[in-house]
Amino acid sequence: MSLNAQLAAFKKEQAATASRNVAYSRPASGTPARTSTPQPTASNDTAKRTRDDAFSQAVAPAVSNEMLSQVNHARGKLKEKLPDTYTFDEIINYLSLPNDAKKNIPRIKEALKGDKHIEWIPATGTSKEAFKYRPIHPVSNAEELKDYLTKRTSAQGISVKELKDGWPNCVGPIDELEKEGFVLVTRNKKDNSPKMVYPDSPGLRLKVDQDFKDFWLKTKVPTTDIEIRNELEKAGITPTSQVKEITKGPKKRDRKRPTRRGGKTTNQHMAGILKDYSKR
Which stretches does the entry tag as region Disordered (predicted)? Predict the structure, then answer.
């Protein structure tokens, strides 16, 4: 076969192969063409809402910390101006919130109402709602301290540190009340400052004669263990440090057990049945 004939045969075979491929890929008549199933895509609103939720979750801790800081500032202001009260509008003016933080104003009000250190005063017909600092103990002067200690049902003292929460300058009046006999005070060893306050009454303090005071001061108190022991022995009292002698009683003798002696044992009621093998 010539070269031209081979080339013609190759082209013919190539054309036939191409036609077969086109017929295979083309759908038959009456059969719908296969198409890829479209994947569902989120709408623009859904995608925007998802982005907003992610952003809100990211900034939520920052908003909470910012609001907490604002509530702390308001509490500090109320504590500084105790016993004065402040309306909510005055508190907001004091905080000077930026424009982007004013949306937290309702949440700040609810946080102030729920704070255990802040007292909420509802609005009346002539006044607006107000807030006031609530100290640990409702005491702000000497008279209130005496009444408060008298009304307490327990003898437990009050910490001076807690009193300073609502009465910062309480140390001087407490010293005066102690001199007058209205309170008992325990003090710190380091600087002799008052530590705890207990109720007292001037009527419980009795006058002591000077002779008794002089006699008490002149009485020498033993300072060493040896002196204390000697004084006790002079008074006929046995010191606890004295070594006790253990007296030994008579020694108990061991009880001797009786020895069992082997002997002939007979059973009279079975004499006619058993045989005697003792001799063996």
Answer: 13-51, 237-280
